[in-house]
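Pilot study result, target chain (274 residues):
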Amino acid sequence: MTSNFRAWPVVLALSIVSAPLVLMYVYLLVDTVTSTAPGSLIPYEFTLRHWTFLWTPVPGRPDIWRVALNTLVFATASSAIVLSLSSTAGYVLSRLNVPFRRFFLAGVMVLHAFPSVTLIVAIFLVLQMVGLYNSLAGVILVKAALDMPLGIWIMKGFYDTVPWEIEMAGIQDGASRFTVWRRLVLPQVRPALLALGLFAFLSGWSEFILPQVLAPDNRVQVLSVYLAGLIADDNNFDMALFKSVGVFYVVPVILLFLFFQKHLMNIYGGGTKG
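Predicted structure:
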């Protein structure tokens, strides 16, 4: 009780600082389902015409549900690649005597230090050469490759916290190294798998530069590019439509964070001791 009483000034201060942000998001949501007179902040009627893009495609734009599906495929596939390769590569770097391991880890960090924008021209040329430019598969592979260095380092850190005794017991019982990794080690780093998977998915869901440059075609357009196209259209700009699509874009992320925020915070922790 005493500790809770001492914490209330901090809670009050954070509430005061956060209140304007919360009010802005609430007003944004209200503004998408109401109409407001020019120069006024008070709505005068309830309406759903700002959300007609859900059942009637915006002229000159692809169907929003196809765009949302592209975004879901892009985020899910890239996060699956990052998760599967990072979980195996992190284990190898943590447990096995790999030649030049330190140099490899240093190289991974150097790759992660490069912003994707500095590599965009080279990536553009490579995708054109292999025939994957303007395709969802190409931009998925690029996104996964750019996110993988961080994923490898995170997974290696979690594997380093798992006691060796767990693996030694499995090996002494006759299990193969792969079986030991799959059945004994992976359960110990489950928080890392969940956190990294969510982190990679959210990163893919919010990605803009790579899809904009490497997959600009309407058939493979994602929500971030769709939203940018709305605000860049000077001839038919509709602020109410832009705000409604923005809410449509951000709601899945908010729900995902609310349901899995505990696992997302575990990305800064360690493996389960056992």
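One observation from the pilot: Residues 270-274 have pLDDT under 50 and may be disordered. A full batch analysis is planned for the follow-on phase.
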